[in-house]
Design goal:
There is one protein chain. By secondary structure, the chain is an alpha+beta fold. The chain has 2 domains: about 1-125 and about 315-365, no CATH class; about 130-300, no CATH class. It has 12 helices and 12 strands. The chain has helices spanning about 20-25, 30-35, 50-60, 80-85, 95-105, 110-125, 165-175, 185-195, 215-220, 285-310, 320-340, 350-355; strands at about 1-10, 130-135, 135-145, 145-150, 155-160, 180-185, 200-205, 220-225, 230-235, 250-260, 265-280, 360-365. Strands 2, 3, 4, 5, 6, 7, 8, 9, 10 and 11 form a 10-stranded mixed β-sheet that branches. A hairpin with a 2-residue loop joins strand 8 and strand 9. It is elongated.
């Protein structure tokens, strides 16, 4: 089996560059054919524009860093856009918006788009690389609802789907141990499911610091940052884990106790700050906040790319359901560009890939045994 690799070149290339690369990667999936076969009763057939052409045109627009329907108009007379994407016709802004309005009334298109986005990554042999923690490798799954990202590369795994669906999707993309990283406000139910499935996770909890003072003093290791400021680090075993869970879970805490402020003023009542995490990893407590901070930075960076590089700082429609469908197309374009931007030295940011797309060429490489 051969994998795909996309490289930048200065050579004269006659095919498979720019929008040609976008079309080639789309053609590795069944996106167009599945949308053409979709039996949604909400869509009135327009023989001039197939569902597949509508989808490819909008993905092509997104791969230029644009998401507004009106921005398709200049591309209708563009010399390269239609032939490179192999479109019969480029839809007008009105046709594009109307078709997405119709398709958004059912869930069918969204499911197809997500499934084919992951199919693209599998078919292209997209690398899903692990992080190393205490000498052990884990495939990270970083949750920032409604998004879930996978691997050091940060491919978008799911969008607001049930945990079991996301777990199956992750297992289809990569092999090995997984580590889910998330916040309690978006993940308490997810954590319970992960315990059931025997999958490792790190989750930051929302908690009242005062409720952890006694535990910190009893089970924590105290160090002094300065006079009047003590830091307690430690962990305690979770005693109410889900029935049938194979992995033990731990509460890891960092409690800061301040009795003298930074100006030397003695406080009548001590002040407390606490960061508390729940995890299945049996690692030193000090390592857990670093893992979570890494997760927070990763999600912030990836969501910023999605919003700004693909043009989703503002949504394209006044219709919420249409915007949800547009975001699903955004995930497809994001994963396509994320794969196209993989390099030997580093992974390119989405906007860099958009900029360099006209200078890229596809090559087939032998997959490693």
């Amino acid at each position: 089996m051969k994998n795909l690799r996309i490289e930048q070149t200065n050579e004269m290339i006659l095919d498979k560059f720019g929008m040609g690369i976008v079309e080639f990667l789309i053609s590795q999936t069944h996106l167009a054919s599945r949308l053409n076969s979709a039996k949604s009763e909400t869509i009135k057939r327009n023989p001039g524009y197939s569902n597949g052409d509508i989808a490819k045109a909008y993905i092509g627009l997104l791969c230029l860093g644009k998401n507004k329907f009106a921005e398709i108009e200049p591309l209708r007379s563009d010399y390269d856009f239609r032939p490179f994407l192999k479109l019969e016709r480029v839809p007008s802004p009105a046709v594009l918006e109307h078709r997405l309005d119709e398709a958004a009334l059912s869930e069918e298109w969204k499911q197809i788009i997500l499934e084919e986005s992951l199919h693209l990554l599998r078919k292209a042999g997209a690398p899903i690389n692990p992080v190393t923690i205490q000498g052990k490798s884990f495939i990270p799954v970083d949750v920032a609802m409604p998004f879930a990202f996978i691997g050091k590369e940060g491919y978008c795994l799911s969008f607001g789907q049930e945990t079991s669906v996301s777990v199956r999707a992750a297992e289809q993309l990569a092999e090995g141990a997984f580590l889910w990283r998330l916040e309690a406000k978006e993940g308490s139910e997810i954590a319970a499911k992960l315990l059931d499935l025997n999958i490792d996770f790190v989750m930051k909890l929302q908690t009242d610091a005062s409720t952890w003072v006694e535990t910190a003093r009893k089970h924590g290791t105290c160090s002094s940052e300065r006079e009047g400021k003590n830091v307690y680090f430690g962990s305690v075993a979770e005693t109410n884990t889900t029935a049938g869970a194979k992995k033990p879970a731990y509460y890891v805490f960092k409690l800061i106790e301040t009795t003298i402020d930074k100006n030397g003023q003695i406080l009548l009542i001590p002040e407390y700050e606490a960061d508390v995490y729940m995890t299945t990893l049996d690692i030193p407590p000090e390592a857990v906040p670093r893992l979570y901070d890494e997760h927070r930075k990763v999600c912030k960076s990836l969501i910023r790319e999605f919003r700004f590089d693909l043009g989703f700082k503002q949504l394209p429609s006044r219709n919420q359901k249409t915007n949800e469908l547009a975001l699903h197309f955004g995930i497809y374009a994001y994963n396509l560009l994320r794969f196209a931007g993989q390099g030997k030295a580093r992974l390119k940011r989405i906007r860099e890939t958009i900029r360099d797309l006209p200078k890229m060429v596809i090559k087939e490489v032998e997959a490693e045994e």
